[in-house]
Amino acid sequence: MKFIDLFCGLGGFRLAFEKYGKCVFSSDIDKSVSKVYFKNFHEDPLNDITIHDEKLIPKFDILCAGFPCQAFSIAGHRKGFKDTRGTLFFDIERILRHHRPKAFILENVKGLKSHDQGRTLDIILNKLSKKINGKENKNKFKDCLDYNVFYKVLNSRDFGLPQNRERIFIVGFRKSNINFSFDHTPVNVSLNNYLNKDINKSLKIKSNVESQISLHLNKRKDYKKIKNLKNLLAYEVRKSRCSFRFDNLSPTLTAKMGTGGNNVPILVQQKRKLSVRECMRLQGFPDSYIIDQKSESYKQVGNSVPVPIVKFLAKKIIEKV
Ligand SMILES: C[S@@+](CC[C@H](N)C(=O)[O-])C[C@H]1O[C@@H](n2cnc3c(N)ncnc32)[C@H](O)[C@@H]1O
User: Fold this and answer.
1) Using one digit for the tens of pLDDT, what is the confidence trace for 125-145?
2) d(CA 296, CA 302)
């Protein structure tokens, strides 16, 4: 089995699919993440997929892509909501059209479902599928790729990770007589086992951040109940607002974490931020994965896909193709 890793980032898809086959092509436009990918997979993915000729991609069986979400509304208004050009999904579409792989797996934020009042997801599905979740797609476009497509929002908290992270997964098969199910038995874990005991001093929060957190905590009606919780987490700490998580789960790690210390979740009792390594664990990356300890590392891990979800889906996809 051969697969390709588009918009590869840190290679979350690759970690899951390598058990079943070989990665024959990878792509990411970001220099810094490409360096980290190279250190781990000995392959430089640095390229802009929008200008990469699909004919130059070697033959493969499965396409993996955690693609950035963009609206189709501007192109759509002109083309009657049937055109994907000008968006990165178009590049997935043209590669699928040329290579016709046996299957694909796409990942995006949960908000893709409601993006542009649902039009963005509709356009994607109408381009991809003749069947959606087992039912004939009556709205498919004339130039539809005719895949048998299944999609569902999954949460990493149900896949053995202590992080609340909802993502939409879209899986497609060339064969039409396949039935695919996302059913799974939830495996829930607590944050405790994912945290380091020895803490680097640089993770300690500044006193102004500490006071901002205290201020917001004091305002809460349930203050007494939550203030002494061992793993009380604060995030999006601002003067005007601050969110808390007190269920032994981390909030969704986001790419915003790279753009300022205040966006990295904070363990309130320990008065410190989560480390990059801890965040990597919360996405299911093994400790053997080589990371840079730079501020972009937070962004990279916040952008990544939860590896255990991909592992679960990879196994199921391989069984079907
Ligand atoms: C949501 S992240 C995917 C992360 C990946 N799934 C992982 O496990 O880390 C999207 C990635 O697409 C990359 N990207 C954006 N535009 C691109 C382009 N034109 N060509 C190639 N990669 C691009 C970004 O640099 C980013 O790393």
Assistant:
1) 999 999 999 999 999 999 999
2) 10
